[in-house]
Each structure stands twice: as C-alpha cells, then as structure tokens.
Design brief:
Shape: globular
Number of helices: 12
Structural class: alpha/beta
C-alpha cells in the first residue's frame, strides 16, 4: 500500500505499522525478549505493532512488553497491545518501585521524554530526561538499548553546509536541549560502567503522520488562512513508518561506546512545502517573516548508507495529508507548533 491509498484510520494504522523486508530480516537475527519503555505515545503503538508483525513474518517467537503510564483515558493502546499478544505493564517509570519491578530484557527501546512545557517545569524535565535514563541504564546493564533522542541540540548551520552530522559539536539551547544532552550522557555513563551494554542514540527530527505532524499542521494553517512563519526556513521531514523502521533496525548498530544515528529525511524549504500544499489546496499560503541564513539542518547520510533509502516520498505524504485533512480524517490533537507566527512581525 502507498500512503496515497489510505482512506480511513484502520488503513492508516495498517500502513504505519507495516514492516519492511529490512525490519523482518533484522528481527529474525535479533535474539531475546524486547521491552518498550514509554511506548504509549505518538510513535510507540505503531512501532510495537510493527515489531509484532515483523516477528510473525520472520517466524520469531519472543516476549514483547510495553511499560508506560497509559495516562490518557481516551487512549486505547493498552487494549490494542493486549490484542496483539503484547504484555502491558502500567505504571510511572519515574517511580523507582515500578521501575525495579520491570522484567529483564535483552533488547530495550527507550522512548520516555518531556518536551512541551519543559521550560516551565525544570524539575520534571530533569527527572524524566536526565535522572530516569541513568536509572534505566543501570538496571539494564547487559542489554542492547535504542535510546530515542533528538537532533535538537545540534548547532545551527547554513543550507550549503549539508547539515549537522553525528559527532558534530552540540550547542544545546534551553532546558529541553540541555536535558537531551543529559539523557545521552546518562546512557554514556552507564555504558562505561557496564561493558556488556550496547546502545544507539537515535536522533530523530520530525516524524510525519496523517493524524499529526508538521505537514498536517501546515495544511490546517493554509485552510484556515493562518500566517506561516519563515523564521525556520528549512526543515527535515521523514514519515513515521520510515522513522519506526530505522528505530527497530538501530539494534543492528548498537555498540559500546554508544553509536549515534540521525534519522531525519531530506532537507526542504518551508516556503516550498507551503507553496506545494497551497497548490494542492487551491489556496495561497500566508507566509510571513524573514528567512534567517542559519537554522537546524540535519545530514542523515550515515543512516541512508547503512539502511538504504527511505520508503515514503515527501510529495506522496503531502498529497495524502491534504486529502486526509479535507476528508475530516482522524487528528490526534497534538500540534507540533511548527510554523506558528508570532506577532512581532
């Protein structure tokens, strides 16, 4: 199925959780049980279902467990996990008693994080993004760990630079940026303490979905006639299916010291995205503000060389997002805030 063929929420989930041949082969060679921490957010349910489907296709039997808060009463992911045969453990990961009760696992995907609101709640940002990673790293001293991280702390560069690569100097901004560095540092510390621990720092930009994401938000802005800021002139975008595929395959490169992996998709001009979406909608986007010469641009050449080209084309995602929003498709109510214009213009 192509993303352009999606017509309803069932097909959307089917598409986003469909494993590639690469994922199936990767999991065929991965031994041991698998634990997903914090797997009830935007990416976790489809990531977990992708793993279940890939294991079934590979003929691999393992215990898959998701431990998370499941704090949203409207969230049905715990029920869906149970239907898939996934063990569900509900609890607060920052509760040391709950964390201590979690089962051993040879393979761990670490997804907890606190972003929106972090500048107003430093205590929670430090607890979730800095302290919890160290505690998890100590508990899972002999595991392979794919650590969900972010490209946020990279320095700003110009478009001609090609973007920030793994290993480039970091220039974190604000409590969130610094707490991302602290998260990776915590796992680096536990890796040094435990030679058998192998990790990958999975640095993701903006994952695109039809129920949320930068493209969906821009479509809504154009339909509503809202201003779109060009204060961030370029952005990297990758489909959530491709992002989840790379997260699973990141187990292949886990090592000690930890390996860094940028997962970002191509660099595109925000102006060009808005104009293409406007053409599809038959409306002119309202673009405002100056375009600075530098911004956050990511180079994911290592990811593409190691795992191959991404499956989902940006033009297909844009066309599908327009059809999805116009048709009243499911929206998760989780705006990215990307492109929101501030009134100082």
């Amino acid at each position: 199925m192509n993303i352009a063929d999606i017509r309803d929420s069932k097909q959307l989930r089917e598409f986003m959780s469909s494993p590639s041949a690469g994922v199936i082969e990767s999991l065929r060679g991965l031994k041991g049980d698998l634990l997903v921490l914090g797997g009830s957010g935007k990416m976790g349910p489809e990531l977990t279902e992708m793993i279940v489907r890939a294991d079934a296709a590979a003929g691999t039997r393992r215990q898959i467990t998701v431990a998370s808060t499941f704090s949203n009463p409207a969230d049905r992911s715990a029920e869906l996990f149970a239907e898939l045969g996934v063990r569900v453990l509900k609890g607060e990961l920052t509760d040391t008693a709950f964390l201590g009760s979690l089962p051993p696992a040879e393979n761990l995907i670490y997804m907890p994080g606190f972003k929106f609101g972090s500048s107003a709640n430093w205590e929670k940002a430090v607890h979730v993004n800095c302290i919890l990673p160290y505690l998890v790293g100590e508990k899972y001293a002999d595991s392979r760990i794919v650590v969900f991280s972010s490209t946020n702390p990279y320095a700003y560069t110009g478009i001609r630079s090609g973007g920030a690569k793994e290993g480039d100097p970091l220039e974190p901004r604000g409590i969130y940026g610094w707490s991302i560095v602290a998260r990776e540092s915590a796992f680096s510390v536990t890796a040094r303490r435990h030679p058998a621990q192998r990790s990958c720092f999975y640095r993701l930009t903006y994952a695109q979905h039809l129920a949320y994401g930068v493209i969906v938000d821009l479509v809504k802005h154009i339909i509503q006639g809202k201003e779109i800021s060009l204060a961030v002139p370029y952005v990297n975008l990758v489909s959530q299916r491709d992002a989840n595929e790379r997260a699973v395959r990141a187990f292949e490169i886990c090592a000690n010291p930890p390996v860094m992996l940028n997962v970002s998709g191509p660099v595109v001009a925000v102006r060009d995205i808005a104009r293409k979406l406007g053409a599809l909608l038959g409306r002119d986007p309202v673009l405002v503000g100056e375009e600075p010469e530098v911004c956050q641009i990511i180079d994911d050449g290592f990811c593409v060389r190691r795992f191959g080209a991404y499956n989902d084309a940006l033009d297909d995602i844009m066309a599908s997002a327009v059809n999805w929003v116009r048709g009243g498709g499911e929206y998760w109510g989780k705006p990215t805030k990307f492109g929101e214009a501030k009134r100082e213009y």
